[in-house]
Amino acid sequence: MPTMTGGQAIVQSLRDHDVDTVFGIPGIQLDNLYDAFYEARNNLRVVHSRHEQGAAFMAMGYAQVSGKPGVFAVVPGPGLLNAMTAVATGASANLPMLGLTGQIPSYQIGQNYGMAHELKDQLAMARGVIDWVERADHPSAVPDLMASAFRHMGANRKSPAILEMAPDILGATGQVTPQAPMPAPTAPTPDPDLVETAAARLADATHPVIIAGGGCIDAEDALVKLAERLGAPVIMTPNALGAIPGDHPLAYSMLPGQELWELADVALVVGSRHTNVGLSWGRLDEVDLIRIDIDPTQIVKPIEADMAFVTSAQLGLEALDAALAKRDTTPVAWTEAAPIRDDANARLADLEPLAGYCDAIRAALPRDGIIFADVTRFTVFARFAMPIYEPRSFFMPGYQATLGWAYPAALGGKVARPDRKVVAICGDGGFMFTVQELATAVHHKIPVVVIVFDNSAYGNVKTIQANNYGGRHIAVELTNPDFVAMAESYGMMADRVTDPSQLEDVLRRHLDADQPSLITIPMAEAPNVWALIRRPPSQGKQSK
């Protein structure tokens, strides 16, 4: 058995699990870990950020684009607390993320001495957010714990993990037995009798729909095949955009999906929490509901399905398609569907200047271009109006709706896929949460274009105050820097665009330059896209 320090054992386990990039910030409790990173510098890249939250968001973006675990390393106490915003966001998006953190010296843990970065119970704090949180108390414990963490992250419903290690243990030596990666858990096989029953109901449907959630990613071919066999419109949640190409005749966003739901007689919901539809679209007793979900605790929420398959999207879709093929199912003629989509698109096209800017971004981006969309008035519009052609091309921050996620996540996504063009779209409010990562982009030469829509306000909240509280605006007006001058002070390429007609050419030029860059767009009041959407209330009021 080789002798290693705790830090070396962690690095060896990362390499054994095919990790080649770590995002993070060093600090005294992690000195022995970062020294081990130095030893592995030819095989393991360290991208250091300007804030722990930024490092963890970068790991999240890396996981979103690649489908592989994104890894970050931050100091304990305030460092991990800063990163936990991103961990919670990654958990909401079902992403494999591994957080490596330190501790105070092992013999001081729990003594309340008031040591630097000491928390009352760091493990309990993290366990309040995610399930897999452990401490390695000896270098020899690292391989098994790391293998367990990677197995957990790669389980059928992916989720983050955190491993902590005290600085004296990171520096201590011991005999370490490397552990090969554990096989990922396999999804349950769908019940054949239930498959036949569900296939029969789908075959008899006159207006079937498929609601595709983020769980459909990596099962795109099976999804398209089944949709075409049924002739069923595929209503994609924002997390599923690109699962079926946006220009496919059966591709629909949630906006026309609301109206398709009014006509649907059978709905197949795949890899989605079903929250929006189940809590706000109605017709619960009129639509036969079939669900496919890997999580047995989720598949019963928020309402029970008529038929439910606890399995992966891939296995469930393939099983249903095979059963329908035996029945020689003929695609239905959903004659009402395309006009509903056309009408929704026409309504969106009237919402200027959002529509013009959306068209310009789509025209400038390659078909496989990647968008990280922060929580802004524009990106609320784009999730319904912008066609997305490839899976893993349009990302949002899960149900946490975390401001400030988009730019650092885009940097991590670009590190994962340097061959694809990456754009972050931010509002001025959210961008200023993580604006310091402009320095990270320049230092590490990460060529992401960030587009900042600047209305000098927390725009969504301002709209709510205008519509629901008689314009009694409080704490929503913002004072911003000159974003172009700020970007240029970092040595970045930067431009200001004031009209949709300018944006396509400017964005093409920035993408072609292949360097970190910024485009800012001053915005007046934007149309209220939320008024078009049926969604569960966020303020405790029941929808009518």
What does this structure look like?
This protein has 544 residues and is of the alpha/beta class. It folds into three domains: 3-175, Rossmann fold (3-Layer(aba) Sandwich), CATH 3.40.50.970; 192-341, Rossmann fold (3-Layer(aba) Sandwich), CATH 3.40.50.1220; 350-532, 3-Layer(aba) Sandwich (Rossmann fold). Helix content is 39%, strand content 16%. The protein contains 21 helices and 20 strands. The strands form four sheets. A six-stranded parallel sheet has the order 3-2-4-5-7-6, sandwiched between helices. Strand 19 (493-496), helix 21 (500-513) and strand 20 (517-522) form a beta-alpha-beta unit. Helix 1 packs across helix 2. The longest helix has 15 residues, at 52-66. The model has no long low-confidence stretch (mean pLDDT 93).
